[in-house]
Specification:
There is one protein chain. The strands form three sheets. Strands 7-4-9-8-11 form a five-stranded mixed beta sheet. It has a three-stranded antiparallel beta sheet with strand order 1-2-3, with no helix packed on it. The protein has helices at about 90-100, 160-165, 175-185; strands at about 10-20, 25-30, 40-45, 50-55, 60-70, 75, 80, 105-115, 125-135, 150-155, 195. By secondary structure, the chain is an alpha+beta fold. It is built from three helices and eleven strands. Helix content is about 20%, strand content about 40%. Helix 2 (about 160-165) crosses helix 3 (about 175-185).
């Protein structure tokens, strides 16, 4: 038996969007259940995101520490950001985020993994890239504002991040999934066997 997620869409009898924000909205769908009953389901509509696990020549991961108001924590994270335009190439978005948040560029890009962050209440899909062969980006640094003005930047060994994840000290979804996927890939067919950076992404289709 092959374990694989499959697309499926149950019938929607009615839909409403009671809240629309700058980047996301909240939608209510009346969904027909298998027994024929109709149940309301509220969820956040999200444009999708990309994240970058940037790995340097010393086996350290580039991480950021940023305040996240909904959880009232400063979290260690990997560079990440929204897909600003529908159909945007996720690789281009990831390269932009790595430049803007860390002023770093990478020569080798692979798809590390694709995830739905909170499928019970949000349709956000995230593509996490592995970026290697890092160097300082050229040009002026991106001007930061709001929470990013307080952001810290560091490079942390992979084994220290794994320890922090398993100890319950690191909680950011993309960091946790990215770091553990990196370790799993190394223990499997190796990093060079990962999907190419332009691999199809059915959750957020794009033009290569």
């Amino acid at each position: 038996m092959t374990i694989k997620d499959t697309p499926e869409a149950w019938e929607i009898r009615a839909t409403d969007t009671p809240f629309v924000g700058n980047k996301t909205s909240v939608r209510t769908d009346d969904v027909v259940m298998p027994d024929g009953t109709v149940v309301g389901r509220d969820y956040q509509v999200h444009p999708g995101s990309v994240a970058v696990l940037a790995l340097d020549e010393s086996d350290r991961v580039l991480v950021l520490r940023q305040y996240r108001h909904p959880v009232r924590h400063k979290l260690w994270e990997i560079p990440a950001g929204l897909l600003d335009v529908p159909g945007e190439n996720p690789l281009h978005a990831a390269q932009r985020e790595l430049y803007e948040e860390a002023h770093v560029k990478a020569e080798d890009w692979r798809v590390l993994t694709d995830v739905y962050t909170t499928p019970g209440g949000c349709d956000e899909a995230v593509r996490i890239f592995l970026a290697r062969d890092l160097s300082e980006a050229e040009g002026e640094r991106f001007a930061v504002e709001e929470e990013e003005a307080d952001m810290e930047l560091d490079r942390v060994p992979v084994e220290e991040l794994v320890r922090g994840v398993l100890a319950g000290e690191l909680h950011n979804n993309c960091l946790v999934v990215g770091v553990l996927s990196l370790v799993a890939a190394r223990g499997g067919d190796g990093l060079d066997a990962l999907r190419p950076a332009q691999a199809p992404w059915p959750a957020r289709p794009f033009e290569a």
